[in-house]
Amino acid sequence: MKTIFGAITSNNLAERKYYLVNSSITSFKTKNTLLRLQLSLIGGANEKKRSETTSFFVYTYLNY
Asked: Which end of the chain is flanked by fewer CB atoms within 10 Å, N or C?
């Protein structure tokens, strides 16, 4: 099991950047990149929707 912590730097989709810590990937420039990562790690639509409206997020997943 692994937990990653992240922050969204802007609510504006065009300027938004995603940062994850405690993972091999440290930054994302586009929403689609994060959503693809999210689907591969979690696979849940509820988590995807939450990431679009929350400034900070925590993911815990089993297969890293």
From this structure: N
Q: How far is 42 from 38, CA to CA, in rounded Å?
A: 6
| 10-30-49 Cα angle (round to 5) | 70
What pTM was estimated for this model as a whole?
0.22
Taken in order 47, 52, 54, 60, is the CA torsion positive or negative?
positive
Parse the chain into domains and list their residue ranges: 2-61
Residue 13: pLDDT over 50: yes
* Cα angle: 60, vertex 62, 10; to 5 degrees: 30
* Structure confidence by residue, pLDDT tens digits, 26-49: 444 445 555 555 544 443 444 444
Structure-block tokens of residue 13: 């989709």
Query: Token pair 């993911």 is at which residue?
Result: 59
